[in-house]
Specification:
Length: 520
């Protein structure tokens, strides 16, 4: 259970004994506060920031030595705390134990050197799911959040190191006289200002164990000077959760209604569910058709695609390939697989790293919905009517729906070499089956549905669901149909009714009685 009561915390005698004889240590010499799991304080539930603040207040009041020191924390709101006069939380483990409140840190000159919002995800994730984030505007590397599943954690997103810095052009290192705090992480970008020759942005590729030096990717110019190194992810903090056999989720600062995160609590709307559309392992998708024939391409120039005889613009084309033509479920599996990869998934001239690329597809029931600007080439024609495409303007578009299905025949009809079938509308705007006005149903190509069985056990058919208006019937409505079958020497005539619905799984089963009297 989370620690809410200051009485559940107790001081340790030394930093070495932290976690042995106490779960809080106040390091007056180095202006740091440390936490370590012990007794009621555990690494899963942690401690509310309010409880820690109350405990520090009591410790200052009750300790004759501490009371002489500047009090280290200011509570701004119930979820905002500022560590001042050079005080800070001691290490990453301590930060990882804080719940329900962000914090900032000011040095002894009043400069803000760190800001850490408290990021909360409530009951939306499974325990195994890894949350990761990037600096979206910088296209940084991925940073994994240190805990999986639902979280309540302080995430340092802003760091400011103002000190004497030594720039080494050979080793590409920046060495400081003070520590680079926990906001500085490998794979993120920092900005240098007020130097003589190194005012620029740099990507961190390594951090020394003592956190007094960072190694960067770009070229440096040798110098030692007082200047500023700032890392700031508060505006472009973008989070993702992508787990095999789970739906994906992501969010950015703007999507939670902020221009910039500050040092308070934020509840992120990250939720996933079991994904029943994923039916193949990654190892299968990476090495078997139709998946290995599929590609995703991002275009700088919008591409034209025609939907219901009207041209629209798209800038991301998913190509399903042609050997064989894939279903919408197979396309989705390939895309979800691609979006968990750490390499470039763009088959064109641009670069899009899979696990940092925005989501492209989602299912709503059995309907596949694309993100803005995404179109799919080479997909099973029977699936086109079950896809909602969104053009680059976000307009939802749909191909006319072609329903499909099959007529399944009984053994008497199969074995009769003369058996035939024909499909009529039961009632097409008062053109009734059983009258001279009866109308034969046409398939999507305008061909009558009917013919010889030729010993087939089932015969597939299509139906122009959205536009069929035969006999004046209302298009885009279910069609009541009557199927007539007969043979000569093996099966008797039979009439079966059914309905063609907006689906690709219509099924009509016909069983005929054996013909006992016919002879040629």
């Amino acid at each position: 259970m989370k620690v809410y009561d200051l009485d559940q915390l107790n001081l340790s005698s030394t930093l070495l004994n932290l976690g042995v004889d106490g779960n809080v240590f106040i390091d007056v010499l180095n202006f740091k506060i440390y936490l370590k799991p012990l007794n009621d304080l555990n690494s899963i539930e942690g401690v509310s920031h309010t409880a820690l603040f109350a405990f520090i207040k009591k410790a200052w009041k009750d300790n004759s030595f501490l009371i002489k020191e500047i009090f280290p924390i200011e509570q701004i709101t119930s979820e905002q705390f500022e560590y001042k006069a050079g005080w800070s939380l001691g290490d990453q483990e301590t930060i990882d134990l804080i719940r329900d409140g962000g914090f900032s840190v000011r040095d002894q000159n009043g400069l803000i050197t760190q800001e850490s919002p408290c990021i909360i995800i409530l009951n939306g994730l499974e325990n195994i799911e890894q949350i990761y984030w990037i600096q979206e505007d910088r296209d940084s590397d991925v940073v994994n959040i240190r805990k999986t599943g639902n979280i309540n954690l302080c995430i340092p997103l802003y760091g400011h190191n103002r000190s004497s810095l030594t720039f080494d052009s050979v080793n590409k290192t920046i060495t400081s006289t003070v520590e680079f705090n926990e906001a500085f992480k490998i794979g993120l970008y920092v900005d240098i200002s007020n130097s003589i020759s190194n005012n620029n942005s740099f990507k961190i590729v390594d951090i020394s164990v003592d956190r007094l030096a960072i190694t960067v990717q770009e070229i440096l110019t040798d110098e030692t000077t007082d200047c500023d190194v700032i890392i700031d992810s508060r505006k472009d903090f973008k989070t993702y959760v992508r787990t095999f056999e789970r739906t994906y989720t992501q969010t950015s600062v703007s999507e939670i209604g902020s221009l910039k995160l500050t040092f308070k609590s934020y509840i992120l709307p990250l939720n996933t569910n079991n994904d029943g559309k994923i039916t193949h392992l990654d190892s299968y998708i990476s090495s078997n058709t139709p998946y290995t024939n599929m590609t995703i391409t991002w275009y700088d120039t919008p591409q034209i695609r025609s939907i219901d005889s009207v041209d629209y613009y798209f800038d991301i084309i998913i190509d399903g390939g042609t050997s064989p033509i894939p279903s919408k479920e197979e396309i989705y599996e390939f895309v979800q697989y691609s979006l968990r990869q750490t390499y470039d998934i763009d088959s064109g001239v641009n670069t899009h790293i899979g696990n940092k690329t925005n989501e492209l597809l989602e299912f709503s029931g059995d309907v596949l919905i694309t993100s803005n600007g995404v179109y799919i080439d080479n997909i099973n024609p029977a699936d086109l009517g079950n896809i909602i495409f969104k053009d680059i303007d976000g307009t939802s578009l749909q191909h006319p729906f072609t329903a499909s299905g099959k007529i399944v025949f009984g053994q008497e009809l199969i074995q009769d070499t003369d058996s035939w079938y024909k499909m009529y509308f039961t009632d097409a705007n008062n053109n009734l089956y059983g009258t001279e006005n009866a109308i034969i149903v046409k398939d999507k190509n305008g061909i009558d549905i009917g013919g010889l069985l030729n010993s087939a056990s089932e015969i597939s058919f299509t139906f122009d669901y959205d536009y069929n208006s035969q006999g004046g019937r209302i298009p885009a409505t279910d069609a009541s149909i009557t199927v007539v079958c007969s043979g000569l020497n093996g099966s008797q005539p039979i009439v079966t009714t059914g309905v063609i619905s907006r689906t690709n799984s219509n099924s009509i089963i016909i069983n005929s009685l054996k013909e006992l009297t016919y002879s040629q």
